[in-house]
Fold this protein.
Amino acid sequence: MDVKDLKNPRQEIEEAIANGDLPKLLRISGLLHGHYCPGSAIGVKAAARAVRELGGKSTGMEEIIAIVETNSCFADGVQMVTGCSFGNNALIYRDYGKTAFTLAKRTGEAIRISALFDRVNQERSPEANELWQKVVVKRSGSEDESRRLTELWKELSFKVLEIPDEEILNIKKVNIDVPAYARIFTSAKCSVCGESIMEPRARLKDGKFVCLPCSGQAYYQLAGDGMAIVS
Ligand SMILES: [Zn+2]
Ligand SMILES: [Zn+2]
């Protein structure tokens, strides 16, 4: 491979959005998400629609930002298709627990899309519902049951892509206050563990910088249950 030949890393995704190739976008999202599921499929569908409506391209430099209202499967479809990710600071997370997201330009021009689950649930077979309870909710399914659910989910995910947008997405043009660009902070060094820390996260102990884990103070954590303070 010659590095000089590398161009826009998102080219394939941008082309698939332009061509309305949702199955391809879902396959690509699977690289990040690890499986095919209705949640990530709805995220893909919503994100592709929002990008088409809003226009603009993401190079991961916060020119376009996505505000997601859930940390469920949906959010991975949104991240992969919009290019707004946890790591490039173009993903803003609001812990509302709603399957919805807003895609915005820096001018505040934005599209908010929320998912309408009634229509998606109609497509779920009784077998899929039963297996979902057993394998995911109760975590008590056998290997075969887990494999079968993966298979049913895969079928359902690609089916979801074919449902007309208006039946599963509530799409609104909005105008929002866009959060400021991520600031670049200087680094401090923890006097206990020696690791480097973004300065605003450093704490003072006996007049010296320490990191949060070494300080023993409370911190924010985003985990499965959402955002919480851990003390
Ligand atoms: Zn999923
Ligand atoms: Zn430390």
Remarks:
- The CA atoms of residues 2 and 95 lie 42 Å apart.
